[in-house]
Amino acid sequence: MSKEIIIKTGRTVNHVYINNKQSSVPIIFLHGFTGSHRAWDEVIEKLDCTAITLDLPGHGKSTFDDVEADYSIDDWCEDFVEILGFLNIEKLNLCGYSMGGRLAIAFATKYPQKINKLILESTSYGIENKEEKEERLQEDLTLCDLIEKDSPKFVQKWENSPLFSKQKDRNREGFLKQQKERLLHNPRQLSKALRSFSQGTMKFYRDSFAEFKFPITVINGSEDLKYIEAGKRFCSINKNANQSVLNNSGHNVHLENPSEYIDCLK
Fold this sequence. Notes:
Layout: E1 3-8, E2 12-19, E3 27-30, H1 41-44, E4 51-54, E5 63-64, H2 73-86, E6 92-97, H3 99-110, E7 115-121, H4 130-149, H5 151-159, H6 167-170, H7 172-184, H8 187-197, H9 206-210, E8 216-221, H10 225-237, E9 241-246, H11 253-256, H12 258-265
Parallel strand pairs: 3-4, 3-6, 6-7, 7-8, 8-9
Antiparallel strand pairs: 1-2, 2-4, 2-5
């Protein structure tokens, strides 16, 4: 049973959930876009360590104080280090999926002394090409409009992405729980999250990633070819990175193949 803590920063209200088992270094999980802390339930119940999950701003119960105010990934990094201070965490293992993985890379760049180990699932260090970056931003802004105008239609569109094509077959219970969480999001808050954390506004972190001194575990699904290549690039530029490609899974490995995913973490 997890303990819920509400932590307020100057810009966000954050709902944090602690599963407090005995371990010297906690592992904190960052979900992907449209996810919530519940995305990790099936994983953390099998781990014998202190596991912490949270709703990222704009998701679940966590909110931006002002959806009209500017908010960036750098702002989130400052808020997250404030959360760690409140929890008295000096070192952590940080696990991020997709958008959460990008946030993890950004945080590790800004506060490398906090990282004991970095675990990255189906993610990247950003877009280098300016035209591609602008194109991604415009795509995300179009999604933001759809989220605010017709949230159920957005969820249907999001779940029909080829990235998630086999989730329902492989883990029906997990898929339906995820769908329920998506439909509960506040549309304006979720739209704000996408505007703030879009790859179209994110810095390109390749050079920073190459300098990471701590162990890095890269996890990809065998059917997610684009992100397998991204994982290979991680390993080619940093000798501390090791890639695991897990069978019978696409983009969301921890939902589609939780047992092998847990083995990777252990």
